[in-house]
Write a structure and sequence with these properties.
The protein contains 14 helices and 13 strands. The protein is of the alpha/beta class.
Length: 394
C-alpha cells in the first residue's frame, strides 16, 4: 500500500455495511496516519441515514469524508440537473481511474464493483480491490431459511471483482468457494470487536448519551432501556402479516408497566421518514407516560447504560449488545410454520436472551425482572487488533 494512498469504500444501500466497515477504517487510520478515506453512497436515503447516525458520521469525518454520488430526489426531471450530474460523475470516475492506474487508490466494496460501470474501476485496480462481507455476523443458515419462507427471494449471482476477499463469519460463501481459490482470503473477527473502535467509542460515550438527555432538557441518567424499532409494514414472518403495529403497542404498554421510571431510548428503523419520526415520539411519550427519547446512537454507545434491549423481531443490533452482555428480548408473533423451523425460538437464537411468542404478560414480567436487576459495569467486548492482518496483505 503506497504512502498517501486513498481508500474508497463503496457502501451498500443498507446502513449495516457502513456499520461493518467503519470500525476497520478507524483501526487502519490509527496505524497509518497517511491514509485518506472516502465513503461513497449513491442512494440519498442511505446518505441521510448515515448523517443522522451521529456516531458513524463523526467517525467517518474524523478520518475522511462521506460522499453522495447519486441524484437527489428534487433534481429528477430536470434536464439541466441531469446533465450536471452526468458530467460530475464522469469527472469523478476519471479521477478515480487515474488514481487506480497510478496505484494510489484502494477500493473496498460489498457488490458495487461486481457489475455496471464501476466494474471498470475494479478491473483497473484488481490487485488493490477488496470485496468484503457486508455484515459482521453473517447470514446464518436458519436466518436464511426463515427469510426464504417469508417471501420468495432471488439471489442474484455475479462474478466477484477484487483480489482480496475479507469475511467475518463462517456463513459467507465466497470464503469457501473453490472457484475463488486464486483470491487472497482473510477471515477476521466481527469488526465491532476492534480494540481501537471500542476505545474510540468509550472516549465519547458519555458525551453522546448526555447530549441526548440535555437536548430534551433532562438530567442524564445512568440506566436506560432500549427499544429497537422494526418496519411497521406487512411481513411474511408473522402469524398475521400486519401485526407489527400491534406488537409495537403491546411492547410500549409492557414498558410503561414494567419500568415507568426508566428512560426509553427508541432506535428508529432507517426507513422512517422525518415526519414519521416526529409523530412516533409524540405517540410513544403519550403511551409510556415516562421519558422516551428517539436516538440514532450506535448500539455500542447505548449498550454502555442499557439494562436491556427489546425488539419485535430479531435485529442485527442484538449481536453488538450481546457482546456487551446486555440482555436482549425478542417479542414477536412468528407464524406457526416458521416456529416449527426455529424450534419455537428466534431465527438467530445465539443473539436473543429472551424469546417471547406474543404473550404480553410474560413480556411485562421479563422486562420488570431485567429493569430491577443490578446492571453490572460494562466490560468491553473481547478486543482484537484488526489493522495488523489487514496491513499484512495490503
Amino acid at each position: 500500500m503506497k504512502r498517501g494512498a486513498r481508500i474508497v469504500v463503496f457502501l451498500n444501500n443498507k446502513l449495516i455495511a457502513c456499520d461493518t466497515v467503519v470500525p476497520l477504517t478507524i483501526d487502519l487510520a490509527e496505524q497509518r496516519k497517511d491514509l485518506a478515506f472516502e465513503f461513497v453512497t449513491f442512494e440519498e436515503r442511505t446518505y441521510e441515514a448515515i448523517r443522522r447516525n451521529i456516531v458513524l458520521y463523526d467517525a467517518i469525518c474524523s478520518i475522511g469524508r462521506l460522499s453522495f454520488r447519486g441524484r437527489r430526489a428534487n433534481e429528477r426531471g430536470s434536464a439541466l440537473a441531469s446533465l450536471r450530474h452526468r458530467l460530475g460523475a464522469i469527472v469523478w470516475l476519471l479521477s478515480l481511474a487515474a488514481r487506480a492506474l497510478a496505484g494510489r487508490v484502494i477500493f473496498v466494496h460489498f457488490k458495487a464493483l461486481n457489475r455496471g460501470p464501476l466494474r471498470v474501476l475494479g478491473a483497473i485496480a484488481y490487485r488493490r480491490t477488496i470485496y468484503m462481507e457486508p455484515t459482521a455476523i453473517g447470514y446464518a443458515p436458519l436466518e436464511r431459511q426463515v427469510s426464504d419462507m417469508m417471501m420468495h427471494r432471488r439471489y442474484r449471482k455475479s462474478s466477484i471483482v477484487g483480489r482480496y476477499l475479507i469475511g467475518f463469519s463462517e456463513h459467507w460463501e465466497p470464503l469457501g468457494d473453490e472457484q475463488l481459490a486464486d483470491r487472497v482470503r482473510l477471515k477476521l473477527p466481527p469488526p465491532f470487536r476492534s480494540a481501537k473502535w471500542q476505545e474510540w467509542l468509550r472516549q465519547r460515550a458519555d458525551q453522546y448519551l448526555d447530549a441526548v438527555f440535555r437536548g430534551e432538557g433532562l438530567e442524564p441518567q445512568q440506566r436506560i432501556a432500549v427499544f429497537i424499532l422494526t418496519w411497521m409494514g406487512p411481513s411474511g414472518l408473522l402469524a398475521e402479516s400486519d401485526l407489527f403495529p400491534t406488537l409495537f403497542e403491546e411492547t410500549l404498554e409492557a414498558l410503561a408497566d414494567a419500568c415507568p421510571n426508566l428512560p426509553i431510548f427508541l432506535k428508529p428503523h432507517p426507513a422512517l421518514r422525518p415526519h414519521e419520526r416526529t409523530e412516533l415520539i409524540k405517540r410513544v411519550r403519550t403511551r409510556t407516560r415516562g421519558i422516551a427519547l428517539l436516538s440514532d446512537l450506535h448500539p455500542m454507545i447505548l449498550g454502555q447504560r442499557a439494562c436491556f434491549a427489546v425488539a419485535n423481531c430479531y435485529s442485527t443490533t442484538f449481536s453488538v449488545l450481546r457482546a456487551l452482555d446486555v440482555p436482549t428480548v425478542e417479542y414477536t408473533a412468528y407464524k406457526p410454520s416458521i416456529l416449527a423451523v426455529t424450534d419455537g425460538g428466534s431465527m438467530r437464537p445465539e443473539f436473543v436472551s429472551h424469546f417471547i411468542q406474543r404473550d404480553a404478560a410474560a413480556l411485562t414480567k421479563t422486562l420488570r425482572s431485567l429493569a430491577d436487576a443490578k446492571v453490572p459495569a460494562k466490560a468491553p467486548a473481547a478486543v482484537v487488533s484488526m489493522s495488523e492482518p489487514l496491513l499484512a496483505v495490503l
